[in-house]
Amino acid sequence: MDVLSELLSLLRPVATVSSGFVAGGDWCIDFADQHGQIKCYSILSGNGWMAVEGVEEPIHLEQGDTFILPRGRPFRLASDLSLPATQAATLFPPAQPGGTVMVGAGETFSLAGARFAISGSHADLLLGLLPPVVHLKGQMEQAALRWAVMRMIQETREDLPGAQLLAQDLAHMILVQALRSQLIHENHLQTGWLAALSDKRLYRAIQGIHAEPGRRWTLQAMSAEAGMSRTIFATRFREVMGETPGQYLTRWRMVLACDRLEHSAEQVTQLASSLGYESISAFSTAFKRVLGHSPQQHKLAQVSKVKAQA
Fold first, then answer.
1. What are 10-54's pLDDT values in tens digits?
2. pTM of the model
């Protein structure tokens, strides 16, 4: 499995709502923290502005654009960002699949898309690898993304047999296609996980880590995968990723550990060995440093959670 597919598979995104809104006149809406959910939308008509918390420059949105908010940060959509903002919660009723809300007077702007719930206690470790916002404009895949969005809305509105599964698959396709387009076409990426994947040498090292997480990786081994000297590789990796190769290796191992603790019957001893740790003690120390609690506590918490939901 390729690196992007593996990350999205481990996030286990579930499309909870497919909806949109139509706006006209002067409007400005504040959307609160999305609580770890991913939002993915396409602009169907008109143009507007978006400001995302932690992103310095506002983003101009035009018909055909797609944007994703992988980290669920608060954001603002507006015809003019300088206008007084209205809280989204006061405008929108509880979202219904396929629903469209009218904002303001007229129909000069419209968007539609999906909101994804993320399962798993390791979601934050994975979402932290993605940028706060992905904005795609003028891509060759624009027509395909628009078709998928419109078909997804149609399926949720008509509620025909199999509509729920088809809408779910379409939402996943939109998410994967948008992230892949950002990775392939956006040459301005300088930092972050997608930027690292677009660097062929860094990608080889990351791909190696994902393919063999239990290997006794050293800086020399990782730099050899990248075809770079240790010093140049270590410097380049940290510049792009914002963490050392060793820190990324540990992060990825802990993501896999959480996923297996939650979705398999694998014992902690086996898990530690398969992820390259020589002892349970070493594995537990690393796990607690990253997650804040021991693997055993994590396992018990997940068992209790499953029983509570039963």
1. 888 877 777 788 999 999 999 988 777 888 888 989 999 999 999
2. 0.82
